[in-house]
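Researcher: Next sequence.
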Amino acid sequence: MADLGQPIRILSIDDHAILREGIGALIANQKDMQLVAEGGTGREAIDLFRLYKPDVALLDLALPDMNGIDAILRIREEFPAARIIVLTTFRGDVQALRSLKAGAYGYLLKTMIRKELVETIRAVHRGEKRIPPEISSEIAAFAADDPLTAREIEVLQCVARGSANKIVADNLKISEDTVKAHMRSILSKLSANDRTHAVMIATRRGFLDFER
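Model: Next structure:
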């Protein structure tokens, strides 16, 4: 971590160059911050963190080669004290909770970057956790709910692509009755009216569309 009085050294990872430029401009205007490196893939996130050992890393969840959660886990495995802020378009409680469990210190929506990023970086550098109130309330709202299992998510991903139960069964090499049982469980857990409603809820909360 940075020495007292030295600028906060920051790594920025996002596959959109325009966003990285905007972040770079914000950081350049702060006397207590320095952008030491930037990249656009999960592999670069790991390699650049290893090379520069930044005080704070900014990391997108949707990267072209791996999801951001995996990158966080890999970095934290090697650097347990790593302080990482997730910058994302995902508003759902599932994505936020997974990020925090993986070891992220902050979770910031990209629409909030201009107003919130600088103070979030300072807070995380101090060792504080930072999550937007609307994301915190989402997490709290569903805290007591049973999460979807990995298999249920696989079933729902197939359904989201428009597959009928028989196709889902063939794809996952399970019986059609098992698919129907999974769907009943999914509808119950998500309080969904039907398959389409379940897909909509699961997408909004972040169960689906996790990887590119």
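Model: Residues 176-190 form the longest helix (15 residues). The mean pLDDT is 91.
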